[in-house]
């Protein structure tokens, strides 16, 4: 008997029929003698619907109220799943994040989990109940409901698994594992049986939305065995078969050294590029520009400073598309005249494409192969950034899918 956490995403919870299937699957695991905690997302489309309503009311909704609103999606799905389990004879109880409690900081719409109280959950499990906890949300010190950022139910699930010292966290979704790239973009992408924790961290941070990055960080920090698998298979398929399906995130660093140089290709459509032109090239200038952006709680990703000409330089960096307007406003209001910049320009239509693989450590020539492939397709590279196990390029968004397909082929990642 083991304690196992299941997470079901929006598609998996997308209709009453699907919720009944989730209940059957969970009941199968419970019948096998395991203690099960389930962390579901809102039904597919529901979070978008709620956030869309907010936008119809006002262009700049108050983040606290957005969290109040968005958190209701998950509250509905936990209750429905509890009913579905009870309807097939299982004892089940649902909790909102604040009832557990899952405590977070106060960064509304992108809060971080600080602690999880496991008392109530353990009591229910010991009493034979399936415990269902809302994904995506928590409560801050002042009692405000917070949410963890889009895709945050993954993080809730892994954090709950870590707090309960679960044997495994199973992330059930609408694909049957982690692929070499998004199978919606490259139809012959290949499923990976295992992916190293480091690679998964890079892929998630570079835009592979199959797992929210913070969930991967939790998995790494707590060495939580985490598996991504399909919720769309027969819910009554043999448990032994299901338990080894999908993709396991592995913590063994060296197992893949001799395998392919590149493990996967990640992309992020939603990038923007900002250039601050003609700033005086003196100590502290990077801090003045990027510090102001960071103080507005905006994440900066790639950064380039041009060579200085006549004591002046240009500064280019990327921010997520959702933060573009805010970043431009901060720079125009607080930075431009203050530092004496000539101008600030932006491009809101750029995307980032990255190749990832621990094999890069022991192979040379990956960058040149990547750049050659893009040049053969006539794609201009605007910015480049690298780490030990990834190379990212920023390109015009209209070439993003072309770039992903060409690189997937060039690195031989397609299924046999
Ligand atoms: P859920 O609602 O279950 O959380 P998501 O939509 O957040 O599901 O994540 C699953 C989706 O992630 C898949 O449908 C797929 O299109 C996308 N995806 C992106 N990159 C990958 C990848 N490398 N492997 C698998 N799926 C990926
Ligand atoms: N429902 C939230 C979202 O759509 C959280 C999640 O699904 O993980 O982002
Ligand atoms: Mg998701």
TrEMBL record:
CDD domains documented for this protein: AAK_AKii-LysC-BS, ACT_AK-LysC-DapG-like_2, ACT_AKii-LysC-BS-like_1
E.C. numbers: 2.7.2.4
Annotated InterPro entries: AceGlu_kinase-like_sf, ACT-like_dom_sf, ACT_Aspartokinase, ACT_dom, AKii-LysC-BS, Asp/Glu/Uridylate_kinase, Asp_kin_monofn, Asp_kinase
Keywords of this entry: Amino-acid biosynthesis, ATP-binding, Kinase, Lysine biosynthesis, Nucleotide-binding, Transferase
ACT domain sequence ranges: 274-349, 355-416
Catalytic activity: L-aspartate + ATP = 4-phospho-L-aspartate + ADP
Upper lineage: Bacteria, Pseudomonadati, Pseudomonadota, Betaproteobacteria, Burkholderiales
Pfam families, alphabetized: AA_kinase, ACT_9
Origin superkingdom: Bacteria
Protein name, as recorded: Aspartokinase
Family: Belongs to the aspartokinase family.
Pathways involved: Amino-acid biosynthesis; L-threonine biosynthesis; L-threonine from L-aspartate: step 1/5; Amino-acid biosynthesis; L-methionine biosynthesis via de novo pathway; L-homoserine from L-aspartate: step 1/3; Amino-acid biosynthesis; L-lysine biosynthesis via DAP pathway; (S)-tetrahydrodipicolinate from L-aspartate: step 1/4
